[in-house]
Write a structure and sequence with these properties.
Putative Transcriptional modulator of MazE/toxin,MazF; about 0% strand; about 45 residues
């Protein structure tokens, strides 16, 4: 099953601000997401 992660506005916050844990993703999926974001950002320039 394909999954969808919407990348909108990114921001940095202190970890103490985040009270909930939304879940885990596999390291492989995280690498794929990062690579997609990198490629998208490169095309935007």
């Amino acid at each position: 099953m394909a999954s969808l992660i919407r990348l909108g506005r990114l921001t940095s916050v202190e970890s103490s601000v985040i009270n909930a844990r939304l879940g885990n993703i596999s390291p492989e999926r995280l690498i794929r997401i990062k690579n997609l974001l990198i490629n998208w950002l490169r095309k935007s320039n």
